[in-house]
Design brief:
The chain has helices at residues 2-10, 25-29, 34-39, 45-54, 75-96, 105-114, 172-179, 215-223, 243-254, 295-301, 309-316, 320-325, 332-362, 376-386, and strands at 13-16, 32-33, 69-72, 119-122, 126-131, 165-169, 188-196, 200-205, 259-263, 270-275, 282-292, 367-370, 390-395, 401-405, 411-412. The protein is α+β, with helices and mostly antiparallel strands. The chain has four domains: 2-73, no CATH class; 78-292, no CATH class; 301-330, no CATH class; 350-425, no CATH class. Strands 4-8-9-10-6 form a five-stranded mixed β-sheet. The protein has a four-stranded antiparallel β-sheet with strand order 12-13-14-15, with helices on one face. Strand 14 and strand 15 form a beta hairpin. The radius of gyration is 25 Å and the shape is globular.
């Protein structure tokens, strides 16, 4: 058992504080102690002690202790990988027996955990709801209010057919991101401000509110989109991907919670789903406003991109006034092109650095960093895109070379032969 846990743990471990430097894994989840990482895999103290005594950093081979700070693959991805089989099995079971969730091991685990779930009170604060525009029609307050008690509400992620719920987000940008597809250049939404009163007791399932090793199963079942694969087609009325979240919501209702507070699915703030009685504790302020998201808001707040302010300044490569005045930045397709290029480069960097880490752990290779050289025209073109200073590196016994900027993006090359983009792909 210890061996299998060790193998799975090593697939997530990337760096330690001895070799981290400016490694980007630190930025995604922050520094995490080795003991925190191990606790995601086992609750056995004996297994914990054996793992701590045996583990070394895969990047620099340094011996690790329980308090060593480590960089890992995104923790959310770890949880999804770990719990996907059980939750997929549970969702398939609920397709056949939608009212017998407690008969399945995953259902029983979720129920037992939620009986001890942390609660919080919401008696003030601002929350927003958003809706897509409907052509040139201006939406009224009535279009964004909680569902009318006299009308039957359709089924959703957290409610069965006929159950009334109300979905809110902690910011106007977050509310808009939850309903828009920014990849399709959807950037405009109607947003409405609400206040939730009445000292509502809600289940707190935000990702950073870890209670024990089983809570991640609840979070993955509640928020993950891999269950969408169960839907027969995008246009089907049959939505088995909602069965697990609805089961979780039913457990919350049975425990007399009045809603669920959870991390945003499309933005980095919080979402709140309110289980309603009459909606009297939800009050609107003002009227709906048509809000167009700026590129900076999308790149900063969306979970797809998660740029911090330093990333944004580097990405735009000019000051704020120039950014707002540059007509190219009103062209979302142009910005998406740059984002796709950046994402591709980051993926390449991850794979190359993972390869280097394995070499270091095996002790059979070292990497040599060389002065800038190569195709000057390509260096100039790449600098225009990324604003980087470029160099080269290679393995000591290899003819393979790769272009290496001294900042964040690494693009592999083979003997200085760089792959060119078609001119049609370049927006300048």
């Amino acid at each position: 058992m210890t061996k299998s846990i060790r193998e799975r743990l090593l697939t997530q471990l990337l760096v330690c504080d001895n070799c981290q430097g400016d490694w980007s894994a630190w930025q995604d989840d922050g520094p995490l102690s080795l003991s925190q990482l191990i606790e995601d895999f086992t609750s056995s103290r004996a297994v914990f002690n054996r793992l701590v005594a045996d583990l070394r950093c895969p990047r620099c081979s340094a011996r690790l202790t329980a308090s060593t700070k480590v960089g890992i693959r995104d923790r959310w991805e770890i949880w999804v990988d770990r719990h996907r089989p059980a939750l997929t099995s549970f969702a398939s079971f609920l397709e056949l027996y939608p009212y017998l969730g407690l008969s399945h091991p995953a259902g029983r685990t979720i129920y037992d955990v939620l009986c001890k779930a942390p609660a919080t009170r919401i008696d003030s604060g601002k929350w927003w709801r958003a809706r897509r525009p409907e052509g040139a029609i201006a939406l009224n307050l009535s279009d964004l209010l909680p569902p009318d008690a006299g009308k039957v509400q359709s089924e959703g992620r957290f409610n069965h057919f006929g159950q009334r719920v109300f979905y809110l987000a902690s910011s106007p940008v977050g509310a808009a991101l939850e309903i828009l597809d920014v990849r399709k250049a959807e950037l405009t939404a109607w947003v409405q401000l609400f206040h939730v009163s009445g000292n509502q007791r809600v289940m707190d399932l935000r990702r950073d509110n870890l209670m024990d090793n089983q809570l991640p199963m609840v979070l993955v079942g509640l928020l993950s989109d891999f269950l969408d694969e169960l839907r027969p087609s995008a246009y089907s009325w049959w939505k088995p991907e909602y069965f697990v979240p609805r089961f979780i919501a039913d457990c919350a209702r049975e425990q007399r919670y009045e809603g669920i507070l959870f991390g945003g699915m499309q933005h980095q703030g919080d979402n709140l789903v309110v289980f309603q009685s009459d909606g009297s504790h939800i009050k609107a302020e003002g009227s709906p406003r048509l809000r167009r998201l700026t590129a900076r808001e999308v790149l900063r707040e969306s979970v797809q991109y998660r740029f911090d302010e330093n990333d944004l300044d580097e990405f735009f490569n000019y000051d704020r006034e120039a950014e707002e005045a540059d007509p190219r930045n009103a062209d979302w397709e142009y910005l998406l092109w740059r984002i796709r290029l950046r994402e591709r480069d980051l993926r390449m960097r991850f794979f190359r650095d993972e390869e280097e880490a394995k070499d270091r752990a095996a002790g059979n290779s070292k990497w040599e960093y060389l002065p800038a050289a190569g195709d000057k025209d390509w260096e100039d073109r790449l600098r225009r895109i990324h604003g980087q200073t470029w160099g080269l590196r290679r393995r000591d016994s290899s003819t393979q070379l790769e272009l290496w900027p001294r900042s964040t993006v690494r693009i592999p090359i083979d003997e200085l032969q760089l792959e060119e983009w078609d001119s049609d792909d370049l927006p300048f």
